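Please check this chain.
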Amino acid sequence: MRQLYGVASLAELVRTHAPCVVLTGAGVSTESGIPDFRSPTGVWRRYDPMEYASIDAFRAEPAKVWDFYGRRLASLAGAEPNDGHRALAELERRGWVEAVITQNVDGLHARAGSRNLVEVHGSIRTASCGTCGATVTSEEALGLLPVPSCPDCGEALKPDVVMFGELLPEAAIGCAIRLSSQAALMLVVGSSLEVFPVAGLPLETLAAGGRLAIVNRGETPLDDRADVVIDASAGRTLAALARALPERRE
């Protein structure tokens, strides 16, 4: 049976198993005004991902895909890191968090100050050329719509996000697996743990004898295997966790 806990229980778990590895999903960024993808009101209810966010769609109709990503970038323009992003950066600075692995592509963890950051699905903040490897910022790419072309070779640029039909970057997922398998505690925040292979990272922690804590709105498939489950706001919960944990002393 699913059993819910409070921040005090989470803080005690972190104290006894620090430093933890954190895995974040869309639920961290919704509090910054960024819509999620898979909820009943999410992005994929309005846009078919196979038409707008797959590698096949990009190759067939790059202008259509870039129109979709241009709209996403416009929605990100006013987004700022929220209390959850800032709390994780502060907990890393204090020594309680070893690394943040994120499914999010919005770049808000980096802007909040997280340093040991693994973006397993890439970042929408840049676009690259698949032919020569040149990279530009998203702002530069937007100025080249409807189909941004490489400044070096003229080929179409692609947003630096992992599209449907693409493999995750080998270096990023390899690092994420290593961190997960070595973690004494994984803290999942704002992820329903539905998208693989990232949803399998907590299993790496559990298989190696580590512990699991989950902060998420709604249930996840791993709630019954977690020591602590908190169904609440990511921002408020992480801010309260940061208040409960002082500077860490070895």
User: Anything to note?
Assistant: The longest helix spans residues 62-76. The first strand starts at residue 20 and ends at 24.
